[in-house]
Amino acid sequence: MKNCWLTFIILLVFMISSCVEPISINPEQASGVMVVDGAITTEPGPYTVRISKSFSIGKFSNEKVTGARVVISDNKGNEAILSEVDSGVYQTLKNEIQGTVDNKYTLTITTDEGKVYHSLPEMLTATPAIDSIHYKLKEEINYIGNYAENIRTYFQMYVDVKDPAGVENYYRWESTRIMEFESDLPTYPPEIDPPPDPPECCYLCYLYNYEQNNIALASDLFADGQEMKNIPVTRVGNGFENIFSFRVRQYSLSARAYDFLNRLRDQQENVGGVFDTPPSSIRGNVFNVNEASPSLP
Hints:
By secondary structure, this protein is mostly beta strands. Helix content is about 5%, strand content about 45%. It has a 15-stranded mixed beta sheet that branches. Strands 12-13-17 form a 3-stranded antiparallel beta sheet, with no helix packed on it. A two-stranded antiparallel ribbon has the order 2-19.
């Protein structure tokens, strides 16, 4: 499945990691910063934008930004005002606006305090189709102390793509696993009381698992117009004997969105080693019109 995808990305993200030399960090500096997560694609809506504020170490959830006016607009004069469907969650109507290739899109947020945030205009670019999805069974050894080890096998999922020549392309993949299983414990609505006896045979059910924290990216910087093969998308554990399917969506990114997500992925993959990416703030393409310059990187 191919989709064109435009992200409004996150305003600011702080990641903290250990290093050889101890550093002193004031965790309160990372709190209270606007965090915006949203995207528009060529698929029909509704499109969702989530707005919250970052939180410091010791807290466990973001403060939701409620009561804001959120607008998605393009360079052709089309716009959609999003409705708040849940605390800090804003959504378009299903057929209110739809992403179009080569159009530029902007997100505007006005908080109930009167602060105004804009995203830089981002062009929605086309993406080719996925050639194939395939996998390899792999094994890794996790050492527990000096004497014990845990061997884990998993399926590494890959995609192949034929990159169009002469065009800069930046890709992102999102994946969904759907596992099939049987249940002999059916549920009934409250009005059915008492519920009937369970049947002798089982119910066929499906469990969806969305890889929300996995960031799978690639660019054609060194592969313009070539077959891009064996691009790793995600790992799937084989601890279950159930049948499952694997679904991948491929999106196009702007160079700015790719750079942002690539730096975010580098921070996520830090393990505390000397060769880790140094911790730093990662600025996205959303800015406060009264406090920041629109010439963000």
